[in-house]
Amino acid sequence: MRILITGGAGFIGSHIVDACLVAGHEPFVLDDLSSGSRANIPDSVPLFVADICDGPRVAAIFDEVRPDAVSHQAAQLSVSRSVREPVFDAQVNVLGLLNVCTQALRVGVRRIVFASSGGVLYGDVFAPAKEDAPANPISPYGISKWAGERYLQFFVREHGISAVALRYANVYGPRQNPHGEAGVVAIFCQRLLRGESATINGDGKYDRDYVYGPDVAQANLRALLADRPAGFAAFNIGTGITTDVNQLAAAVRVQVQATREQRGLGGQLPPLQHGPARAGDLRSNVVDAGLAARELGWTPQTPLADGLRQTVAWFAAQAAGTGPA
User: Fold this and answer.
1) Which domains does the chain carry?
2) Burial of 135 (0-12, 13-18, 19+ CB in 10 A)
3) Residue 39: φ, ψ to 5°
4) Contact between 168 and 235 (Cβ < 8 Å)
5) What is the pLDDT of residues 237-279, one digit of tens each?
6) Exposed/middle/buried for 58, CB within 10 Å: 0-12, 13-18, 19+?
7) How many CA atoms lie within 13 Å of 71's alpha carbon, on the beta-carbon side?
8) Using H for helix, E for strand and C for coil, what is the string for the chain?
9) φ, ψ for residue 305 (rounded to 5)?
């Protein structure tokens, strides 16, 4: 299958590229490289450097690739930036999506998989939210993701395609950048590996559902390939387990301390610090991924401790200039 992955040079998108290659499919990447990197994808994978908001350029890429399916990961992914710049957020996350969907339909794509967000759609939830929980986005980012799902439902009704929205929990892992809702893992890794203290916002008692990036890529692959009829479906992609930021920072610190000792750097890392609370942070967000297990056959495979170990190892290798992309 020929699969076009928008945002495919980014954190999650590049793991989807890897999953497609392992499964024997032919991935193509559309990415403006504003947050992604060419180093994240193999040289053999065609990369089209373009902005999804550039309609004529997106049309030309679809004409050249003629994909069978689209995995739409490209997005403005920062909640805080969406609050500062709601127009920019809507341009990328709504108008960009419409560009991609319009061209996909024009060349006969029959399935679109969309990166949505359970982390912002449901608002404060203290028990794992199911897909039928009321949407309650409070940031422009969350509103644009909700609008994206509604537009997909429109395209399904009007054109009879298959569309799947994957509502991610907080995704972390190798290749992560420090932006977006789960960027705290990357920030902690980078600062602690430099021997600096990491700062926790507020009291740190913010519960989140952390899911490993390569596991999320497998969810995308299953959504792309599943034998599903035309129509729209939304699936939560998470673990159903919460970890607060204090626990997360302590776990990353333990992994970094062990890595530094293995590399002969020695010395104890400085203690974690607390800074001002960040306005608008949810106290708790966690999703129930049971529907994805039943209908896609997907369940998370990587416990948080293992995922953090692999993530710290990746950041350490990058810092030393010895690691793969």
Assistant:
1) 2-173+212-240+285-300 (3.40.50.720)
2) middle
3) -65, -15
4) no
5) 999 999 999 999 999 999 999 998 888 776 789 999 999 998 7
6) buried
7) 35
8) CEEEEECCCCHHHHHHHHHHHHCCCEEEEEECCCCCCHHHCCCCCCEEECCCCCHHHHHHHHHHHCCCEEEECCCCCCHHHHHHCHHHHHHHHHHHHHHHHHHHHHCCCCEEEEEEEHHHHCCCCCCCECCCCCCCCCCHHHHHHHHHHHHHHHHHHHHCCEEEEEEECEEECCCCCCCCCCHHHHHHHHHHHCCCCCEEECCCCCEECEEEHHHHHHHHHHHHHCCCCCEEEEEEECCCCCEEHHHHHHHHHHHHHHHHHHCCCCCCCCCCEEECCCCCCCCECCECCHHHHHHCCCCCCCCHHHHHHHHHHHHHHHHHCCCCC
9) -60, -45
Per-residue burial over 256-271, b if 16 or more Cβ lie within 10 Å, else e, is bbebbeeeeeeeebee
Residues 209, 278: contact at Cβ < 8 Å?
Answer: no
Q: Give how far the C-alpha of residue 100 lies from the chain's centroid of Cα atoms, to the nearest Å.
A: 18
Distance CA 147, CA 281 (A): 21
Structure tokens at 11: 């954190």
Bridge-based pairing of strands 2-6 and 26-31 is parallel
Strand partners, 274: 200
Structure tokens that stand for 272 in this block: 């974690």
The torsion angles phi and psi of 161, rounded to 5 degrees, stand at -90, 180
Query: What is the block-wise mean pLDDT of the chain (325 residues), using blocks of 10 residues?
Result: 98 98 98 95 98 98 98 92 95 98 97 94 93 92 96 97 97 86 86 93 96 98 94 98 97 94 83 88 93 98 98 92 71
Active site residues: 141
Residues across the chain: 325
Give CA–CA dist 125/140, Å, rounded. Answer: 19
